[in-house]
Amino acid sequence: MSAPSETDLVDLTNLIRQWSKALGFADLGICDLQLSHHKAAFTDWLAAGYHGSMSFLERNGELRFDPALLHPNTLRVISVRMDYLPHQARFAADLDDSQQAYISRYAVGRDYHKVMRKRLKQLGDKIEAYCQQHFSTPSATRPFVDSAPVLERPLAEKAGLGWVGKHSLLLNAEAGSWFFLGELMINLPLPTTQQSVTNQCGDCVACMKICPTGAIVKPYVVDANRCISYLTIEHDGAIDEALRPLMGNRIYGCDDCQLICPWNRQAEPTDEADYQHRAIWQQHDLLTLFSWTEQQFLDNTAGSPIRRIGFERWQRNLAIAIGNGPATEQAIDTLKAQRINATAMVVEHIDWSLAQLQQQQLASRKTARLVRAIRTGLPRDAD
To answer: Where along this sequence does the record place binding of cob(II)alamin (predicted)?
Structure first.
């Protein structure tokens, strides 16, 4: 056996594409490790405080711009795309019903970290087994799925999988943005698929205009402190009162900037079983979800990315959503019942929601008195 020739590496790359397709990846690209030109923008973003409380982004800066430091002897990064848009996504139905919970569509199925990491590991195993059999140079691979300081979108863009849109997500002309990204680092000089993918956002600013909280502060720059996805998932403290009414019924993530994007009209639902709607997330009303005990939360979110936020944040998010909904007696009673055993942080949000609902009730009573006064000719404040 000998070291792989250029022809051998081309043949291996073709096999890698076949294997990745069989493993459920929709697309694959290969790039080198040069990312230094992204450093200034990332540093400026951190300096502006747009990362919120995600202090981990401040650490391991050099690793982000030199993937070889994460996996010694790495020469290439294999970037993969896996589509996740479920059939019957129910976007409009869930957003329009203020008594139903809205959950980002990436989270209604199985945790993508587990799915993608397992399959990337399988892809790496196939590559290593092939190289062991055919070449004297052993192959070494390492998979990454949101598990280390990896600049996945710049790598995917560099590998030719799409372009970064104004909402900071990767866009693909055929698939929109409804997909996950993962990386497999490898110590072989595989031929790259690097190409200059034209940014096709043009003058469109639909994503910036529709963001409920104005989190896209300028093209390609997102202030996490205002982003509903960050607030409901990553942020572990109290949520700014000024932002609570803007969150509506979104209890885990937000898809608005993707929903409005013209490129997502091209996206087709995936047949991947792991990403289809779990039965537990089909038409669940806010009050039912808020009534769960911590054990019910753990049981019902097993294998789901939702479990990672923990019970306290789950209750916080639901309390806000209920406060943004109709002021029914059932809603008020449910909030009061859950308040008894809630943490101090959750109690703060429950009290805010109760105040919101009570203001709604007061406004309704005033309106009713006004209507009655008009109809009867009595003073407006008469009983």
So the answer is: 64, 146, 170, 181, 229, 254-255
Alpha carbon of 183 to those of 18, 197, 312, 376, 377: distances in Å? Answer: 17, 19, 32, 71, 72
**Does 131 belong to an annotated binding site?**
no
At 233 the pLDDT is 98
Assess contact for 316 and 247: CB atoms under 8 A.
no
On whether 255 is known to bind a ligand per the annotation, the reply is: yes
- 236, 231, 272, 271: which is closest to 253 by C-alpha? 231
Residue 1 pLDDT: 62
**Cα–Cα distance between 146 and 82 in angstroms, integer?**
14
**pLDDT score at 368:** 64
CA separation, residue 139 to residues 28, 40, 48, 133 (Å): 19, 33, 41, 11
Residue 291, annotated ligand binder? no
31 labelled ligand-binding:
no
C-alpha closest to that of 90 among 261, 231, 228, 269: 269
Can you point out the beta strands (E) in 1-69?
Answer: 27-31
Distance CA(92)–CA(255), nearest Å, equals 11
Neighbouring C-beta atoms of residue 200, cutoff 10 Å:
14
Distances (CA, A) of 315 to 101, 173, 252, 298: 12, 38, 11, 13
Q: Which of 317, 303, 315 is nearest to 109 (CA)?
A: 303
pLDDT computed for residue 136 by the predictor: 82
Write down the pLDDT at residue 266.
Answer: 83
Positions in the chain whose pLDDT score sits under 50? 382-383
Query: Which residues are tagged catalytic?
Result: 146
